[in-house]
Specification:
Helix content: 25-40%
GO molecular function: arginase activity; manganese ion binding
Bound molecules: arginine, manganese (II) ion
Pathway: Nitrogen metabolism; urea cycle; L-ornithine and urea from L-arginine: step 1/1
Distance between the termini: 10 Å
CATH superfamily: Ureohydrolase domain
Keywords: Arginine metabolism, Hydrolase, Manganese, Metal-binding
Shape: globular
CATH class: Alpha Beta
CATH topology: Arginase, Chain A
InterPro entries: Arginase, Ureohydrolase, Ureohydrolase_dom_sf, Ureohydrolase_Mn_BS
Number of strands: 9
Number of helices: 9
Strand content: 5-15%
Oligomer: single chain
GO biological process, one term: arginine metabolic process
Radius of gyration: 18 Å
């Protein structure tokens, strides 16, 4: 197969890819999501990216599994569960992602629960700003908005809060406190955030989306307009000269396609709709990073292989595999 045909606008070239594998489950309560990076790699993802898509992969060959290294003493803070563990992992991850992105590489991060996006998006936002002088946009594909502030979250699970930290809606005024490391250079604007696939949004989150004027395409919008028009509108909102970070929660897909995930919600995207989103974002040439999160191979074990396969498919599409 030929090298990728889309010329990336904000990367050094179309071939260099930094891969980060983050086996972290501390942003929520179900064990097993930390095994996803290994499952994805074992299913052939990395070798496919090398052989079929001809990426030069920069990877430390380590699946960072943080389960054992989590601080023993990690009491709740502002209602958040495991705040120090999440803080430690995301801070380290942010630097790792930053180092790849700073060199103009595409950054692919395999999670892990969605709390890790605090690390990935902060890292790319900072690097992209330094390299290109532009503010990055984020496309968040998910059944959930993950924009609870600690104060309004019903669960205290930080995987339901990353967007609040990244947009500055959940601030941590003191740099010495757990999320005090997140500074302005790491943040994204609510104006450059677009959601696709929402169908399980908490009441307080709906209020935030309304008040902040955040662009969101729910499953209702996808039913009404079709995924093709929704993608035109989503990408039109972002504009053609803006770098894009795509954060893909596998639970955006219907459990029919991706049953092995911690907070599955019925009535979701088909696998083709998920792949189509990834393809459209790839086609812009503006994609600089991708997160794939919330695959939990230990849940719904009969469906685990299918869920992993769906994840591999999304990644391949975002990296240009399916375009002719
Ligand atoms: N990344 C996810 N799967 N998030 C689910 C979040 C569910 C719920 N809104 C919460 O805050 O707890
Ligand atoms: Mn979700
Ligand atoms: Mn999520």
């Amino acid at each position: 197969m030929d090298a990728p045909t889309i010329r990336p606008k904000f990367l050094k070239n179309g071939h260099e890819l930094g891969l980060v594998a983050v086996g972290f489950s501390g942003g929520q309560c179900k064990p097993g999501v930390d095994a996803a990076p290994m499952a994805l790699i074992e299913s052939g993802l990395v070798s496919q990216l090398k052989a079929d898509l001809e990426y030069d992969i920069h990877f430390d060959d380590q699946v960072h599994v943080y389960t054992e290294q989590m601080p023993k003493d990690d009491p709740d803070y502002r209602g958040m569960k495991k705040p120090r563990a999440v803080c430690a992992v995301t801070k380290q991850l942010s630097n790792q992602v930053y180092e790849h992105a700073k060199q103009g590489r595409f950054v692919l991060t395999l999670g892990g629960d969605h709390s890790i996006a605090i690390g990935t998006i902060s890292g790319t936002a900072k690097a992209v700003r330094e390299r290109t002088g532009r503010d990055m946009a984020v496309i968040w594909v998910d059944a959930h908005a993950d924009i609870n502030t600690p104060e309004v979250s019903g669960s205290g699970n930080i995987h339901g809060m990353p967007v609040a930290f990244l947009t500055g809606l959940a601030s941590e005024p003191e740099p010495t406190k757990p999320f005090g490391w997140i500074s302005d250079e790491h943040k994204i604007s609510v104006k450059k955030l677009v959601y696709i696939g929402l169908r399980d949004v908490d009441r307080a989150e709906k209020k935030i989306l309304r008040e902040q004027g955040i662009k969101a395409f729910s499953m209702h919008d996808i039913d009404r307009h079709g995924i093709g028009r929704v993608m035109d509108m989503a990408l039109g909102w972002i504009g053609s000269d803006t770098p894009i970070h795509l954060s893909f929660d596998i639970d955006a897909l219907d459990p029919m396609w991706a049953p092995s995930t911690g907070t599955a919600v019925r009535g979701g995207l088909t696998l083709r709709e998920g792949d189509f989103i990834a393809e459209c974002v790839h086609e812009t040439g503006s994609l600089v990073a991708l997160d794939l999160v919330e695959v939990n191979p230990s849940l719904e074990e009969q469906g685990a292989a299918e869920t992993v396969r769906a994840g591999v498919s999304i990644v391949r599409c975002a990296l240009g595999d399916t375009l002719l």
